TrEMBL record, chain A:
<dbReference type="InterPro" id="IPR027417">
    <property type="entry name" value="P-loop_NTPase"/>
</dbReference>
<dbReference type="Pfam" id="PF00005">
    <property type="entry name" value="ABC_tran"/>
</dbReference>
<dbReference type="InterPro" id="IPR003593">
    <property type="entry name" value="AAA+_ATPase"/>
</dbReference>
<dbReference type="InterPro" id="IPR010230">
    <property type="entry name" value="FeS-cluster_ATPase_SufC"/>
</dbReference>
<comment type="similarity">
    <text>Belongs to the ABC transporter superfamily. Ycf16 family.</text>
</comment>
<feature type="domain" description="ABC transporter">
    <location>
        <begin position="2"/>
        <end position="246"/>
    </location>
</feature>
<dbReference type="InterPro" id="IPR003439">
    <property type="entry name" value="ABC_transporter-like_ATP-bd"/>
</dbReference>
<keyword id="KW-0067">ATP-binding</keyword>
<protein>
    <submittedName>
        <fullName>Fe-S cluster assembly ATPase SufC</fullName>
    </submittedName>
</protein>
From TrEMBL, chain B:
<dbReference type="InterPro" id="IPR037284">
    <property type="entry name" value="SUF_FeS_clus_asmbl_SufBD_sf"/>
</dbReference>
<comment type="similarity">
    <text>Belongs to the iron-sulfur cluster assembly SufBD family.</text>
</comment>
<protein>
    <submittedName>
        <fullName>Fe-S cluster assembly protein SufD</fullName>
    </submittedName>
</protein>
<dbReference type="Pfam" id="PF01458">
    <property type="entry name" value="SUFBD_core"/>
</dbReference>
<dbReference type="InterPro" id="IPR055346">
    <property type="entry name" value="Fe-S_cluster_assembly_SufBD"/>
</dbReference>
<dbReference type="InterPro" id="IPR045595">
    <property type="entry name" value="SufBD_N"/>
</dbReference>
<dbReference type="InterPro" id="IPR011542">
    <property type="entry name" value="SUF_FeS_clus_asmbl_SufD"/>
</dbReference>
<feature type="domain" description="SUF system FeS cluster assembly SufBD N-terminal">
    <location>
        <begin position="9"/>
        <end position="179"/>
    </location>
</feature>
<dbReference type="GO" id="GO:0016226">
    <property type="term" value="P:iron-sulfur cluster assembly"/>
</dbReference>
Amino acid sequence: MLEIKNLHAKIDDKEILRGINLTIKPGEVHAIMGPNGSGKSTLSSVLAGSEVFEVSEGSATFYGKDLLEMPAEDRAREGLFYSFQYPVEIPGVSMVNFMRTAVNEHRKYNNEKPYSASEFLKLMREKKKLVEIDSNLTNRSVNEGFSGGEKKKNEIFQMAMLQPKISILDETDSGLDIDALRIVANGVNKLKSEDNATVVITHYQRLLDYIVPDYVHVLYKGRIVMSAGKELALELEEKGYDWIKKQFED
Amino acid sequence: MSIAGTDIKTEEKYISLFKDNLGHLNVITSEEVANEREAGIRIFEEKGIPNRKVENYKYTNLNPQFERDYACDFEHEVFNQNLSEVFNCNVEDLDAITVYLINGWYYRKNQVSESLPKGVLMGSFAEFSKSHPDIFKAHYNKYAKNEEDSLVALNTAFAQDGFFLYIPKGVVVEKPIQIVNIMKSSEDFMAFPRNLVVLEENAQAKIMVCEHTLSDNKFLVNGVTEAYIDKNAVFDLYSIQNQHNLTTNISSVFIKQKQNSNILTHNLTLHTGVTRNNVYVHMDDEHCESKVYGLFVSDKSQHVDNFSFIDHAKPNCYSEELFKGVLDDTATGAFAGKIMVRPDAQKTNAFQKNDNLLLTDTAKMNTKPMLEIYADDVKCSHGATVGQLDEKSMFYLRSRGIGKDEARILLMYAFAYEVVEKIRVEAVREQIRGLVEQVFRGELNKCNSCALCGQDASGKGYTCM
Ligand SMILES: Nc1ncnc2c1ncn2[C@@H]1O[C@H](COP(=O)(O)OP(=O)(O)OP(=O)(O)O)[C@@H](O)[C@H]1O
Ligand SMILES: [Mg+2]
């Protein structure tokens, strides 16, 4: 469904992604790990359509469509979801208004009728239960004054609302206590199906105990330098990245 | 021909207009109003129309607006049409006591008496100046600062009519009072509305003034409102301006507060040509509270200038100011907020904030706090920001499938939200929320509040929302 070939991206002439190759098929779970600053979030936001970075080379297609040509909103409407490492606080935009607008813009794109207020609220209630998010959060402005963990939970709530085909979860586990981690992971697993895929970016094995990956990739200095099965995550947890860094120093 | 020469000519035009019409001006108003005229025109003559050298008008040059020729109506040619047939205010659903002004004149067919509590007086400024000279003797032109602003003095010279509101001691008017002023003429037109509000001890009232234009003429409106708010009284004044861009609107509000009184003013400029809002609050007693707010949304070449002067004359008073502006295209704006803390005014709390959102590189905003503090035990703060739409928020919204335009609207609304929420009359707040959102969506032109709407305005040199 997602095919990334030789993807290069830079900011202010600093090349951050230096030739990423990655293929993701429906039903798969991929984990991306790697030291701080290696480009994991950059890869995610480039795929999501951030205009901060300039793609200088390579391609990314999503179900055959050129992803890089699409504006961010169309990528989302096509079914790509990016759970931010640092979700943005938007005071003055209520969660309800935000989600209603997002869901209905998705529906419009797919030639579906917008939800009525009651249909929408019903959907919202359902999904809130799924990710066990408190109503006092969804009654506030987007992420405003949310704790780190609450923000992450809110990302998964949005994912549940939008029902994407591919979700990129950027350090969704950071800032979560063990109960919250279990809830979030459960949420992700409940949303999983044969037809959708998940990319989990994490530094820790713990999340991968709950969301079990089919593949684990190591991103280092803007390249995927190693790919293997789920056992690689355990190895990294144990040994750290030094042994990989040594191999790929350039 | 020197520039000074043309300046003099403009002012002389107004002085001779005054001399030629003095007889008419005084026909319908009482002595209390008539007696103030000469001093007014003298100040105007002496100071002239403010130019950029006048500190308080640094960012707004009104000379071109005054140079034009306008017709006036000093004899009040009665507006014959049935108002409801030509006009529907956007805020019509509001459960309010609604009265109309036409070109600043109190519409004589207004019917309100039944819905008002006993003892409340509401009606034509001119008529009440004659029937209740005692109130006018005590309050008229006592709070307006003619010396500070030659345009206020000019209003005093020409003042004839407007609305008058008197709330006796202890009376609370529950419903908001909506005053709709409609500018309509067959030629370019100028008006000097003058309003007077008196709230006696422990009284309460909330006024919403809606300013509209109904014909595609150039309008110059130079209005003054004075309000006396006695002990423990509570007063709200919301001014909603929705005028086409051939309009120059100068509105000056002067509020005098007595002990424990509580006031709120809110200037919402949704559309205009050139606007200057002045708000003067004089906290002349202890434990007064004043909240002075403003929001303007402008595009194309609109210009909005908000000026405020909060006078902390006595100890233990609280003032809070928040002004926000959203500027698109080549719109320009200004904010100047003067806070005066007199030597006496210990334990003053005064807070001021002005935030602006520039949507283009060509929009411009000037903002200037002016604090004069002569007491030592005070808490004062001020801050101003001028910024663009936040790129990170924009990306966040778009990454959820919200299109660029829609995301912009959400963020513009989010910016304005804080100051809209300051409206403390729920029904009014609801209405304004809707109006502001419509402005951001560019949908406010679907109203019939403006004769220009529905016509093809493009290429005619004016715009309507
Ligand atoms: N807006 C930006 N401007 C300049 N440099 C940036 C910007 N965003 C990211 N970078 C740089 O790009 C590199 C990769 O950053 P990125 O956030 O993608 O790393 P990461 O792998 O997600 O790290 P972490 O594990 O800490 O989240 C870093 O060197 C970072 O400093
Ligand atoms: Mg990161």
